[in-house]
Amino acid sequence: MEAEPTRLAIELQVENETLRSENALLKSEVEIPTQRLAEIEKRLSKNSQNSQLPQSSDLFGRNSNTESPNRKVRRALGKKPGKEPGTHGKHLSQKVDPDEVVLQSPLDCSSCGSDIFGASVQSIETRQVFDTPKPTLTCIKHRSERHRCWRGTTTAGVFPRSKRVGTLWTEDQGKCPVSALWSAYPNEKGIGSDS
């Protein structure tokens, strides 16, 4: 009878050792993906506010948990974002007489493709685009008149200070290399010389 429990104890002990070794093997196999997952989560949690990453690397919605102090106060007071109800909005209203009107008329039907040029107009939708005009180069010619007095002395009109060289760009545009050359040799005939 004693042999039976001893044999059973040995079998249980062998099974226990087998289970322990399998358990240790499984733990080591799980440890590698767990470390990899922690590394990935750490990398994903970085953004421009808590690391040296640029703002362009921030993913959409990543900083949704960070809220500006003003927004927190407004939310605590129950205020919604945007303009307050009842106040007039500010916008760029359409002009009654625009500088240019461009007609966008379809040539053929969007459904069947047949020619609809000259067909009756059902409705018109308008949109206006406000653009700043393209800068243009303006040329202003300054002439210095010379007058002779009754004594015979010739006196010339004085050019404004910035117009004393032959060809000159304004101070905002910088000095033209040709005008720099002209100002270096003022006695030579060249650009801007009427003589």
Layout of secondary structure:
Blueprint: H1 3-44, H2 69-76, E1 146-148, E2 154-156, H3 177-184
Antiparallel strand pairs: 1-2
Gist of the model:
It is built from 3 helices and 2 strands; from the N terminus they run ααββα.
List keywords for this structure.
DUF6444 domain-containing protein; disordered C terminus; DUF6444; 195 residues; two-stranded antiparallel ribbon; mainly alpha; 2 strands; 3% strand
Can you describe what's shown?
Residues 46-68 have a biased composition (Polar residues). It is a single chain. The protein contains three helices and two strands. The N and C termini lie far apart (138 Å). Among the domains are: 3-49; 160-195, no CATH class. It has a two-stranded antiparallel ribbon. Helix content is 30%, strand content 3%. It has 195 residues and is mainly alpha-helical.
Report the principal-axis shape.
elongated
Number of helices: 3
Helix content: 25-40%
Q: Tell me which oligomeric state these chains represent.
A: single chain
Organism: Ferrithrix thermotolerans DSM 19514
Biased composition (Polar residues): 46-68
Biased composition (Basic residues): 71-80
Protein name: DUF6444 domain-containing protein
